[in-house]
Write a sequence for this structure.
């Protein structure tokens, strides 16, 4: 399976652990990745506030790169990047005049032949649960995980095509295939505050606190995420949350690819486990790894 | 919300419809948008109130509340609206009107559009986001130089405070695209 890989700005910087563990898992299950040549920013939350044309042209430029590279599938692990790509793709298909303007500013034609996929889609639909199960050589018995999907992954439904908009299950299914116990909770797709972490951290503290409280209430030892914004907001600010709300959590927030890597027998440094602010050492050590 | 109608008031609603195809008059105030909105509690005007205000052309109320900047773009409102109004698209449209200076209005939360501008400036410079610079310059802009200072050392030791992004080979074409976009938008 050969895929164009769009890491996006965060996976190339503060979320290097997602990039490392994602690449490791792909190697382990036979997914071939090739980084999109000369990729640029997808526009994230800022291009859309500036102009619709920009918000569509920025992702489409990257899709065109992948298309020129001869790929028909592009894999995007970052939920925000993924959503921007899919929304842009959809906008081109439905808005003729926008399409012409996008061609004009990009000075090239993107033919729309690249399918944008998330690692969870690929692991479930292409690799398959059976293959995933066969890769496991390290059992994490008794470790309770809540899957936090975040807001960008499943929205908007007509574009995302995810299993369920409000109550997705794909990450649960993937982690269960690795023998992990995922517990139910009501905050799967709540928003963590995303980019507000730069301009209004007070809002992020408030939202992250609610999510952490719900995870604790569900009895979680670990929160599994698939978005660099979710990871940063839930992990980095736990100290400040303890100060603001008088409640300590110390719940490690790991990418689902890191958890898969652990059960597939990767070394801690190959997965960047040492990069989390709340160390997963204690949670995972009890279960005989690290 | 108390509404006084002093003039004919569908101008902005019509403009929104022509720009986005979304008709704000479809809203019947069920409040699902507000109930699902993660930042509604920090908004001076809640999403359903914004929709009502737009129906009555109360532009000042909408812009002066700053609610369009408190929105984190999580899209819960659009997904859950029983009338299928893409509320986030309406908000994006209002943000676009302000960012392109077609509307000039007081904003109680200037730090947020300022962050978006800085983000795009950095992207224009590097082709990718320079996270550390974004955080540091925002602190200076907000005159809170020591905001999140407690995170700096742990982030350094964990290797999460990074230098400038790798340079993209596509930077030249990308800058060209940004300037053409600005030109086209200036004309329209």
């Amino acid at each position: 399976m050969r895929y164009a890989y769009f890491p996006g700005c965060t996976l190339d910087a503060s979320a290097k652990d997602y990039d490392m563990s994602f690449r490791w898992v792909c190697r382990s299950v036979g997914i071939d990745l090739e980084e999109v040549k000369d990729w640029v920013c997808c526009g994230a939350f800022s291009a859309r506030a500036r102009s619709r044309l920009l918000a569509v042209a920025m992702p489409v430029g990257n899709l065109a790169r992948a298309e020129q590279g001869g790929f028909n599938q592009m894999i995007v692990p970052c939920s925000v990047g993924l959503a921007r790509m899919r929304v842009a793709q959809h906008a081109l298909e439905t808005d003729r005049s926008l399409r012409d303007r996008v061609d004009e500013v990009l000075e090239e034609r993107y033919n729309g032949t690249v399918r944008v996929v998330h690692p969870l889609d690929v692991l479930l639909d292409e690799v398959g649960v059976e293959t995933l199960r066969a890769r496991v050589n390290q059992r994490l018995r008794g470790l309770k995980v809540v899957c936090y999907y975040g807001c960008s992954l499943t929205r908007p439904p007509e574009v995302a095509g995810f299993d369920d908009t409000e109550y997705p299950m794909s990450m649960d299914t993937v982690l269960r295939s690795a023998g992990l116990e995922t517990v139910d909770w009501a905050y799967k797709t709540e928003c963590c505050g995303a980019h507000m972490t730069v301009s209004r951290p007070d809002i992020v503290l408030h939202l992250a606190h609610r999510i952490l409280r719900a995870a604790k209430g569900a009895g979680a030892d670990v929160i599994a995420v698939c978005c660099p914004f979710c990871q940063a907001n839930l992990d980095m600010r736990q100290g400040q949350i303890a100060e603001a709300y008088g409640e300590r959590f110390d719940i490690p927030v790991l990418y689902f690819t890191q958890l898969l890597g652990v059960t597939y027998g990767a070394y801690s440094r190959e997965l960047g486990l040492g990069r989390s602010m709340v160390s997963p050492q204690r949670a995972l050590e009890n279960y005989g790894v690290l | 919300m108390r509404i006084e109608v002093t003039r004919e008031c569908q101008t902005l609603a019509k403009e929104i419809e022509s720009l986005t195809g979304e008709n704000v008059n479809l809203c019947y105030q069920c409040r699902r948008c507000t109930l699902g909105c993660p930042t509604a509690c920090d908004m001076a005007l809640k999403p359903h109130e914004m929709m009502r205000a737009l129906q009555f052309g109360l532009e000042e109320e909408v812009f002066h509340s700053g609610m369009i900047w408190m929105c984190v773009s999580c899209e819960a409102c659009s997904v859950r609206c029983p009338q299928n109004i893409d509320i986030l698209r309406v908000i994006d449209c209002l943000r676009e009107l302000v960012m392109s200076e077609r509307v000039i209005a007081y904003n109680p939360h200037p730090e947020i559009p300022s962050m978006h501008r800085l983000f795009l400036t950095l992207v224009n410079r590097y082709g990718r986001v320079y996270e550390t610079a974004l955080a540091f310059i925002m602190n200076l802009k907000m005159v809170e130089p020591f905001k999140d200072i407690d995170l700096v050392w742990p982030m350094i030791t964990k290797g999460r405070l990074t230098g400038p992004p790798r340079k993209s080979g596509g930077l030249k074409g990308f800058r060209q695209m940004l300037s053409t976009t600005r030109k086209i938008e200036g004309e329209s």
Q: What stands out?
A: Chain A touches chain B through 60 residues (CB under 8 Å).
